[in-house]
Amino acid sequence: MTTTKTAPLTGVDGRLIYIGHLARTARFLKLFSISSLGITLLGVPLIFFIKSGMSTEFRTALASAALITSLSSTGIIHYVLAPYVTQITLPHVSTEAAPEAIEPITEDTQLSIDTLTFFGQPRRTHIRAGELLPSKRVFSSWRSPIGQEFHVQSDVVQTEEMLHLVQMVQARQTQ
């Protein structure tokens, strides 16, 4: 049985084992893309109201090109950045616990994996480590049994717990 669920992010509660180095950049890019789409949606009607020598067909083509370009870029940015993991925490481990006092990650270890919503807001998913599977999707490293995708920068592992988690999920790829 899967225990994957999404909850609002309320801050770092637990031991932080991974931070996505591009988290701020990913959030900024999502917000910028949504903003530019909004500006495009507001600006397109102006193409039709401003008096000029352009024909209606040319104005329609211009408005369509602007909308298609903005919608496409926002869609691509969301597709690429939707699985990007901003941080992973062990929710039931004290932040003051000494590293040697922390139990190693097992299949039953509960994880909190933070990603970004379409509008760049944080989203937290709770999942057991044993439920993470290797992903075949481009721009994604792991997936949950219900199909949620996650991308971690496994070449930038900051803690022993994260290294063990990456190795655990990669071992499932060969099984």
Polypeptide structure, described:
38% of the residues lie in helices and 19% in strands. It has 175 residues and is of the alpha+beta class. It folds into two domains: 5-20 and 84-173, no CATH class; 26-80. The longest helix has 27 residues, at 23-49. The radius of gyration is 21 Å and the shape is elongated. It starts with a strand and ends with a helix.
Provide a quick synopsis of the model.
With 175 residues, the protein is an alpha+beta fold. The chain is 38% helix and 19% strand. The protein starts with a strand and ends with a helix.
Layout of helices and strands:
Blueprint: E1 5-8, E2 15-19, H1 23-49, H2 56-81, E3 87-90, E4 110-116, E5 122-128, E6 133-134, E7 142-143, E8 149-150, H3 160-173
Antiparallel strand pairs: 1-5, 2-3, 3-4, 4-5, 6-7, 7-8
Keywords: Membrane, Transmembrane, Transmembrane helix
GO cellular component, one term: mitochondrial membrane
GO biological process, one term: mitochondrial proton-transporting ATP synthase complex assembly
Rounded to an integer, what's the Rg over CA atoms?
Answer: 21 Å
Which of globular, elongated, flat, extended, rod-shaped describes the shape? elongated
Distance from N terminus to C terminus (CA atoms, Å) equals: 20 Å
Describe the main β-sheet briefly. 5 strands, antiparallel
State the order of secondary-structure elements, H for helix, E for strand. Answer: EEHHEEEEEEH
GO cellular component, one term: mitochondrial membrane
GO biological process, one term: mitochondrial proton-transporting ATP synthase complex assembly
Keywords: Membrane, Transmembrane, Transmembrane helix
InterPro entries: TMEM70, TMEM70/TMEM186/TMEM223
